[in-house]
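Q: My collaborator sent me two sequences in one message, no labels, and asked for predicted structures for both. Can we handle them in order? The first one she listed is below.
A: Yes, handling them in the order given. First sequence, followed by its structure tokens:
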Amino acid sequence: MSKGQIVTLGKDEPLKHTSMAKANAKTGEPHANNWTFFDHSSGNFKAGIWDCTAGSWEHNHPKLEFCYIVEGSVTIKEEDGPTHVYNAGDSFVVPKGTRVTWIVENYAKKLFVSAAHLEGK
């Protein structure tokens, strides 16, 4: 039987796994893992699983990103804007170019889908 076209995040073998300390750390020593399960040939669309240990860092989102928190919680402070707290079961979208500070108190795990280039709103 062939593998098929549908990708199951967390069950299928990831295409790529990266593990690194977060750049621009403000507090702690946050370390993140990123498992990419789908990467469109255009490089414009990705889906995967991300997790991170405690700490905070500044980030300018290079892509539009949908996130679903699977485990733990994150606090996201928008530059010159509100602060958002997301717990397991919560989902949100971060528009491309949004400047934020991510804060992970203990540990967080999320599913993500990102797109670099979209037309319109």
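Q: And the one she listed second?
A: Here it is, processed independently of the first:
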Amino acid sequence: MACGVLELMAEGLGIAPADALSRLVADAESDSMLRVNHYPPRPELQGRLLTGFGEHTDPQVISVLRSNGTSGLEICARDGSWAAVPPDPDSFFVNVADALQVLTNGRFRSVRHRVVVSSERPRVSMIFFGGPPFGQRLAPLRQLLGDGGRSRYREFTWKEYKSSTHKGRLATDRLCSFEN
């Protein structure tokens, strides 16, 4: 599914070949993973919300999430306000992640999000994080540099970026140190 979404994104941006993005996560050496999160109910909150997973962006190329239909996922709007994502146990939620923002030279923006926990129901989510191989060099694709050929990001390896994400705080804009 993640590869299909990435191929549709590539098509929409006019990127050739069509698998330019998807092959990064389809590679046998990709740093992709599946994670299951469980947020138990917290009756002592009495209707108040508690941060279950702090605000962040995902560092990989793409993340695909499915939950059990319990609310909790919120995304940050451009004005800095938080919007709840309506839960739907029959749908998938796709996040553009940091590496995809770099590859598209900022045409697609990594989504800042968080999880809040309620007092009533447990929340379970399953997330596929599509990451490239550790040695993969990341930089904006030439087709997306525009007329001036300006790259918003310097070239770096996935290993270099992933290592840098572990050094900072979760909520920090981790891509800023890779900007030109």
